[in-house]
Specification:
- It is built from nine helices and ten strands.
- By secondary structure, it is an alpha/beta fold.
- The strands form two sheets. The protein has a five-stranded mixed beta sheet with strand order 1-2-3-5-4, sandwiched between helices. Strands 6-7-8-10-9 form a five-stranded mixed beta sheet, with helices on both faces.
- The radius of gyration is 21 Å and the shape is globular.
- The termini are far apart.
Length: 307
């Protein structure tokens, strides 16, 4: 008897979209299943972790025992060359002295204190069928970061408060509407700006290089439907929206264009819109007691378009 023949069929399915996804538990299970299979090809691999807001194939964090210079880069190629791991877009490797991979804040601090342009590898390879950011389907940029080893010596030359830095940026481009800096106590603070996009952001990155004394890592997102105070969803947006070969620049400072791409960028493929619920659906689920959420929850996970 098929599902379609039943009077009250139940169709087992999962809905993909913004994190956290229903299939995240399957993703975490694959971590444990495939770890022993990866070790013969990468024997000094200690563990790896796929954060749910990286939707698994877009971001992998791995801990390894480094034995020689270039060891992490060797592991990057090993990951990108085996089975389903070959779809991974971004891989960050840390040493055995790093915090637990699931300790997000401590791990971010550890990585940013070891980040340098010289230890970033950008290459090309196959990408997931559903990846929308690559210039062509199935093939796109790969980003590997070697965050093993010692803390880097150079930090931010001239730190500024958010409001002051935003004002300086707006003198260069008035389409920059918001700014927030993260991990300012590390060697590589992350500066996130929201823009009303009117041109290729690669031109903006070039213009902002005059402020390189105040910036170490710059991330640009669209002002529409992004909350720069929500790092969980920002990570999802960034790893979804970038093609490393096109969108990551390393001159002056590390810059990442995570805006939606269009004709301004010479992008010719169709760019998908965000997946949203409707208020009616949320209200119905709430009334039936299936969910119990408030406006803060709805905004945090982008369930409805931002007002």
């Amino acid at each position: 008897e098929t599902i379609t023949m039943k009077k009250n069929p139940v169709f087992a399915a999962t809905v993909v979209g913004k994190p956290p996804l229903e299939d995240k538990y399957m993703g975490w299970a694959t971590e444990r299943v495939f770890l022993p299979m990866l070790k013969p090809m990468a024997p000094d691999l200690i563990d790896y972790y796929m954060p749910e807001n990286g939707v698994f194939h877009n971001l992998i964090l791995a801990k390894m025992k480094t034995l020689y210079k270039g060891h992490a880069q060797q592991f990057m190629h090993a990951f990108w060359g085996v089975g389903q791991m070959s779809f991974v877009k971004h891989a960050i490797f840390v040493g055995e002295d790093a915090p637990a991979l699931e300790d997000h804040e401590a791990l971010c601090e550890h990585i940013l204190n070891r980040l340098s342009t010289e230890k970033i590898l950008i290459t090309e390879g196959i990408v997931d069928h559903l990846d929308h950011s690559a210039p062509e389907q199935f093939v796109g940029g790969k980003l590997g970061i070697d965050a093993t080893g010692d803390v880097v010596s150079d930090g931010l030359e001239a730190p500024l408060e958010d409001a002051v830095l935003l004002e300086k940026m707006q003198e260069i481009d008035t389409n920059i509407v918001a700014l927030k800096q993260y991990m300012t106590h590390t060697k590589n603070p992350v500066c996130v700006i929201a823009v009303h996009k009117q041109r290729s952001q690669l031109k903006l990155i070039k213009a902002l290089r005059v402020l390189k004394a105040h910036i170490k890592v710059l991330i640009i997102v669209d002002a529409e439907n992004n909350d720069i105070n929500d790092p969980y969803m920002l990570i999802w947006r960034v790893v979804n929206n970038i093609d490393a070969q096109r969108d990551v620049k390393r001159k002056g400072f590390i810059a990442v264009d995570a805006t939606n791409k269009n004709a301004l960028d010479g992008f010719e493929r169709e760019w998908p819109g965000d997946t949203f619920c409707t208020k009616e659906v949320l209200d119905t689920l709430q009334a039936k007691g299936i969910i119990d959420i408030d406006e803060r929850f709805i905004r945090k996970f982008g369930l409805l378009p931002f007002k």
